[in-house]
Fold sphingosine kinase.
Amino acid sequence: MDQCRAKLESTSLVKLYGEFTGTSNRKGRCAVILTEKDLVVQRLTSAPVGRNKVVLSLKDCVGCRAYRGNDSADKAAYLVAYFYPLKRRWMSSKVSRQRVEQGFRLASLQDPQANLEEAEKWARAVRERSARQQFPRNGVLMSQMSRPCQMMLLVNPQSGKGQALTLYNNHIQRMLNEAGIKHTLVITERQNHAREMVKEADLSQWDALVIMSGDGLLYEVINGLLERPDWEEAIRTPLGILPGGSGNALAASIHHYSGASPVTSEELLVSCGFLLCKGLVSHMDMVSIHLCSSPRLFSFLSLAWGFVADVDIESEKYRHFGAVRFTIGTLVRLASLRVYKGRLAYLPATKDHNSEEALRSNTMLCKDRVPPVTLPAVRDSSFHNSCHSNNSLKVRRVESTPSRSATKALPGPHDSLLPPLDQPLPDDWVVVPEEDFVLMLAMYQSHLAEDLLAAPEATPDDGVIHLFYVRAGISPTALLRLFLAMEKGAHLTTNCQHLVYTKVRALRLEPYSPKGIITVDGEVVEYGPVQAEVHRGLSRLITG
Ligand code: ADP
Ligand code: MG
């Protein structure tokens, strides 16, 4: 046994060592070692060491607790740790998070209280070390949510196939308990219920607002927060999302930002649940949206017109198929491809602007911000040049001073880049020369749907709108090819002459046809002229 201990201890820096039995099999003894990074369990048998050793990374641990058994005559205490390591599925090349529970019985001491204290010491040490195993990713510093924390978990029972509550019962409730996260379940009763509730809520009670639905429910919550008189503080409440709908684009984006390989459905839910339990918070951009006669809106995901908006809304009738509804809708629309006429203009994102903006938001918004990743200014110069002469004809210089800009004295950030919707645009805007489109899609997160990586370069707080449009003239087959390539985020490398991609800070779209569909975060909004401006890192998102 000493030999075994010596061998284990020599492998890495041991923090704790103990010899326990399993929870069900009291005869099977094991040596347990806690290092800075791993929990190592070595079964003590005469078989060769390698076969009986399990190494669990603390990065995959969501929680650990100690408790006494139900039998008061039992002097033992119990220790249980919960892990969600990435594992290859049986007969599949796919990797997803799968639950592993490690339980131990500690009974070496005569005093039951002393056994419990020993188990608690272990539980604390495991929790502290797994919390320390979080590193900033891609230069984004994330702060960890305070523990114990109190979450409001909003569930839309109608979202997706109507299974959000079942999914909560089957996966999420247990996971949050394992992580020691207290939560209050709020089941929405109707559309806009969540929006009204967060508008009035006492936010000091909540460490986070978590949505279990599709993107539509988060859209409600964000707009409710930004309608409050204390919007500036309210929008800094950490927000979380668990995929329970049919359009789970933000959940898929968060999973993608974590660096894991793509998954869908319940595997995506387990991944997002795991990341939520990890509780790391990053900044998220918000985009303000101006429409002709509706009040200003806020958007965290997308603004769409043409093919994508039509598919999103027309596929509502296939809702009971879940996320597959978009595939069905795409095929139906491809069969009767339409051309959408309108005028599109945008303010390009530049490298300089992004560094300036970052400095400003560092000092103004929050203390915990780190210098952001600088963006390459991607602009198709030939395209830009070709439309420049048009610009000078069409666009008059307008100073976007606060008094003349479109923001009224309403809650929410000031839009410094947008003149009122009926006024001409400043001359540093680019007007797209085409007027015939198949789609216009503005994205600020990576995914458009669970399996559509529309903006592969997007990060939650890059401060840019990733603008795509497809010119009319594309064949249905070529468009289908684009969407198929988008599953892997490869559509930008297909060399499709009809697809244009550029990074912008603001845009304006004026559709010409009197009827049509415009969506914001997958929700229908007033059809007609629309303009948008990005506000870098305005909100907080739990990304894990
Ligand atoms: P999905 O991805 O399945 O579309 P969403 O979260 O986008 O799921 O929700 C769809 C719509 O349902 C949104 O417009 C949302 O505002 C609305 N909604 C929220 N709660 C309810 C409810 N209890 N009953 C009906 N609709 C609701
Ligand atoms: Mg939706």
